[in-house]
C-alpha cells in the first residue's frame, strides 16, 4: 500500500487510495519536534483491510525518522498506541 504525505507549515495528512477510496490521517504541527494527530478517516469500503493500521504505523515511522514526538488526540490513533507498547517512544511525555 502506498501512503502519501502532504505537508504545509501548519500540518498535513497521510493518505492512501485503494480501489478509488481514500483513507487519511491528519495532523497539526505545533513545533519542528512535535505533531498532534487529530483525525483518522477510513471509508466503509476500506474497513477491515488494515489501512488505518498502516497509516498509524507510517506516522510512527515518520516520527522516528524525523526525530519528533506525537500527541495523540485521535481516538483511533490512541487505541493503536495502546495495542503497540513498542510505539511508546514517539509519545510526547
Automatic annotation (TrEMBL):
Ranges in a coiled coil: none
Taxonomic superkingdom: Bacteria
Transferase in keyword set: yes
UniProt entry tagged with the keyword Transferase: yes
Domain N-acetyltransferase: 6-92
GO molecular function: transferase activity
Family matches, as CDD domains: NAT_SF
Keywords associated with the record: Transferase
InterPro entries reported for this sequence: Acyl_CoA_acyltransferase, Gcn5-rel_NAT, GNAT_YJDJ
Entries under PANTHER family matching the protein: BSR4717 PROTEIN, PROTEIN NATD1
Protein name as it appears in the record: N-acetyltransferase
The organism of origin for this protein: Rhizobium straminoryzae
Amino acid at each position: 500500500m502506498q501512503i502519501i504525505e502532504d505537508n504545509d507549515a501548519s500540518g498535513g495528512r497521510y493518505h492512501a487510495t485503494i480501489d478509488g477510496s481514500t483513507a487519511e490521517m491528519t495532523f497539526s504541527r505545533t513545533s519542528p519536534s512535535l505533531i498532534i494527530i487529530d483525525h483518522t478517516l477510513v471509508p466503509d469500503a476500506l474497513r477491515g483491510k488494515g489501512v488505518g493500521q498502516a497509516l498509524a504505523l507510517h506516522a510512527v515511522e515518520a516520527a522516528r525518522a524525523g526525530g519528533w514526538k506525537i500527541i495523540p488526540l485521535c481516538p483511533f490513533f490512541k487505541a493503536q498506541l495502546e495495542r503497540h507498547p513498542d510505539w511508546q517512544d514517539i509519545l510526547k511525555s
